[in-house]
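Quick illustration, no need to memorize.
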Amino acid sequence: MQQNKKRLRDLGITAGTLPVGTLNAITDVPGVRVGHATRIEGEGALIEGVGPIRTGVTAILPHARNLYREKVSAGVCSINGFGKANGLDQIRTRGQIETPIILTNTLNVGRAADALVGYMLKQNPEIGLTSGSVNPIIGECYDAFLSDIRGRHIHEQHVVGAIENALASGDHAPVEEGCVGGGTGTAAYQFKGGIGTSSRVVIDGRFTVGALVQTNFGSRRELVFLGVPLGEILKDKYMPVAGAKSKQSYATAKDTGEKAGGSIMMILATDAPLDSRQLSRLAMRAAFALGRTGSYSHDQSGDFAIAFSTANTWAHTTDVPTQPIERMVESSNFTDQLFHAATEAVEEAILNAMLTATTITGRDGNTLYALPHDEVTHWLKHYHRIP
């Protein structure tokens, strides 16, 4: 596995016009924490239930306290609903998140949900006795091109480990990107993709919008990199390779986005005091970021955005019928700045996921290649996007 960890701005390239947070990460939003558990094990031919394994878990915590007892406001946008994410309907109905957000692979959604429920039961002994149930939030992408996905290699220790790593990271910590956690085995425009993050600061520095993505979407020719038709330029170069041992002749096309479309999970966080309706509108702006990178959201692509605010918390049970809160006013001046921030942050997070990813060979010798940095800088200079 190559080491290729430079982000967009490390290459001297700026995306958008808004200022970024000090980390340029979702963790610029006060209180938000991110942790990963990564499994890279084995080489060679696929042995179902054994490996090779190229998968993992990413955990996003809106705050480090008990989320079940201090819920946060949230909203969801299903840009294209060809996915197996868990718990989104209750967010749409109640407008709240009450667990960490877990990102993993498609066939591990059930195991991740079970592990997350187990974690919440230990943390909250009242669940199922005096306070009702809990809604585990799980997002997913399909990493079968590189990993033994049928082996379902995510277990309780990996989900809990990702949460514990997030808790241990502390406030305002850098986020590891690329081939880690839920992005270990995923793609982007038929390059190696993974986890990416970015942030923007708006309204005179008062509020931050942060984004984290798990990419696994797009056909090569669609890729637009800051306005440059990079996918069309590199259409036949660095394409995924199905190894000689591969049992699926369609693997390169289907599992990396040529036909199936792939998926992307986009998580937006802000400290602006938005309610669930406003957060759903914020989540919708992730679709425009996706489009700015060239995607039109394929028929068989699970493209979901979840947005949450850390500004207000909600008790699971209370004796009072109302709660005084601060809420964002309905003003186009302020709202448009947040929409702008969300779009820029998600776009740059996608680009960071690609730039920080490394070339990986997985099961049966299947290989996804990293996007070469020299190609990016050369063509951005050629199109006068950078000096």
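The chain has one domain: 9-316+329-382.
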